[in-house]
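To close the section, here is one more complete example, presented without commentary so you can practise reading it yourself. The ligand is zinc ion.
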Amino acid sequence: MSAPATRSKRRSRRRRRTPVAFRLLGMLLALGLVVTVLVLLVRMISPGAEERVEQVTQSNLLTPAPTAVPTPIPTPALPAVDVTSWELRLVDLDHPLGADFAPPMLTVVADNEMVDSRVAPELERLFADARNAGYPIYFCSGYRDYDTQYSIYWNHINNYTAQGMTEEEARAATLLAVQYPGCSEHQSGLCADILESPDQDMEPYIGGSGLMLWLEQHCAEYGCVIRYPKDKTDITGIEYEPWHLRYVGHEAAEYIMGHGLCLEEFLALYETPAPAVTPVPTPVPTPAG
Ligand SMILES: [Zn+2]
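Output:
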């Protein structure tokens, strides 16, 4: 082949090669365009991944996370007792028995001390069981009539005034330990002061002697409660007396001792709530000008 013919062939090949390159480039551009259009179409039809994440997050915010449901603690029902019955009668300064009150019948339980006959069998059982448990036990005081309470009350006041107290101070000090005549539970015949011996030093009992702990743990089994508990003086008005048991019946006693209440708190649970009173707004005084 001659040189000009060869050059002519190369030119001719270049001329043929150039449209192929353009066609390839065009095809690539078209393919790119198609892919772009397809991607856009897919995005229009179905939200993108980021949008889906955002939707999930938003739906999480809108739907509250499930909270743990607390297991309900069963509230023991109040015992079905008649709070107007004789054994639940409240006796204190605001609820006096009066000078003429006396229990319908009295029975001697021990140490020549008497109680209401309806209570006597339970106290006899308590005395026997405490002795069997190894405790010395002495029935210090049961039923007292009005006149006896009157004497005790005035003896206390006279002792205090002899020590230099005014009568007002002596009355206040006396009422912490001795009820006003006509207002003592001892006149009801439903209570019992139980000690270990005739010794009247009460300090060891307040400190928690073995018998006092036994009474606290077991009194409800005999329908009795510790009438003046340690931390209820502001309610009962009487200082802690672990020796003073009061018969209230078995169901009430189990509830009162089981819930750490005093008799006043227990009876209050049966009161119907008073209707709500709308408070009258106090007029704001206008400053004189
Ligand atoms: Zn007493």
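Once you have examined the tokens, check your reading against these statements. Residues 86-268 form a domain with the Muramoyl-pentapeptide Carboxypeptidase; domain 2 fold (CATH 3.30.1380.10). Confidence is low (pLDDT under 50) at residues 1-16, 46-54.
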